[in-house]
Amino acid sequence: MLRRGATLAAAGVLLLAAPAPGWADDVRGGQQQVIKTLALTKAWRVTKGAGVTVAVLDSGVDPRHRDLVGSVRVGRDFTRGANPPGTTPSRLHGTYMASLIAGHGHGPDGKRGIIGVAPAADVLSVRVILEDEEPGFREFNTAERFENVVARGIRYAVDEGADVINMSISKELATREERAAIRYAISKGVVLVAAAGNEGDRQIDGSLAPYSYPAAFPGVVSVGATDRRLLRATFSNSNSSVLVAAPGVDIMGAGPGDEYWVGRGTSQATALVSGIAALIKAKYPGMSPPFVARALAASATDRPPGGYDTATGFGVVNAAKALSAAARLAGHTETAKGEQVQDPDQPLAGGRSGPIKVITRDDRRVTAFTADAAAAAGGGLASLAVIFVMVRRVRREQGEQDA
């Protein structure tokens, strides 16, 4: 049996509600606040991400969704053998994240459906989790052979040519294999972006939220979520691993079968930041991961007093400003080096590698793995799909014809 929390841990509660009338009439309209906050229209004058591959380590991506068709390469399934033979994966969470990163819309001029942050980028789908409604969920979360699927997925994505790896996933404990895989990715120039986690509303007496992995590893861009006021969303983990934040409330996205969803969580915020990282890598393909992280942090808006706090890191990402910051860094030739990491049983420093200011975590270990999550996990796990705090399905757009 695996150690408690050694693999993917619950980060929220997945709730589904009935489709809301009227939403279907304006899916793209539902994205306008995010497009404005991230200054995407201005960023797209510089690049839309062409030539970049973003690996989505998740529950799988539907390559036939009209807003993603032609942009998705289905890679290896590291969960194979957990589900009974013939089971079709639901692929909701992975499709949702992929659409926020590289959705290109559909219809005349691609003006319908979901537009991602880097609409010209390609997606490599790497399945490393099962969603909790899949029949193999318990087998996947208890069988020892699946313990290091995240580490294996990272290495696979790097070897398959990924420039950015999106990990809208969360777990309680780190493993040596994951640390080594992250060092390997950084040494190859691959940018890693991960969710800070959704346990923020469980904080007690102002204490910090638990550290989630892989987000808390040095060298990984850890992303928190903001609400509509660009303040920390109540569910978003607040701790010194957080580098930057992005919108994470009422985020429109695509789902399998040409459906659309709206939800909130650090998963969505992470996908948006991965999209900006893809824009930077498209414009400056040789830029090292620490410099990409530096560009994201240095250009952030809505910066907290003093320039940094554990709620939103260095502030809310801005695609246009990040590209400008990257341009200033582009003359540098330093390359990222994998750094020596601590024993996984010791507290982990929450800073970043490279030129980013190191913010040291509190000495005490902070754990908030709730009893209900543990029970659902069957000994320590829950599907990464529950990185959502809430999602609602959006009715399919009516009367549309594909371009």
TrEMBL record:
The keyword Metal-binding does not apply. Residues 1-24 form the signal peptide. This is S8 family serine peptidase. Gene3D superfamilies: Peptidase S8/S53 domain (3.40.50.200). The active site is at D58 (charge relay system), H93 (charge relay system), S267 (charge relay system). Belongs to the peptidase S8 family. The chain crosses the membrane at residues 373-391. It holds the Pfam family Peptidase_S8. Residues 49-315 form the Peptidase S8/S53 domain. InterPro entries: Peptidase_S8/S53_dom, Peptidase_S8/S53_dom_sf, Peptidase_S8_Asp-AS, Peptidase_S8_subtilisin-like, Peptidase_S8_subtilisin-rel. Keywords: Hydrolase, Membrane, Protease, Serine protease, Signal, Transmembrane, Transmembrane helix. It comes from the Bacteria. Residues 331-356 are annotated as: Disordered. Coiled coil: none annotated.
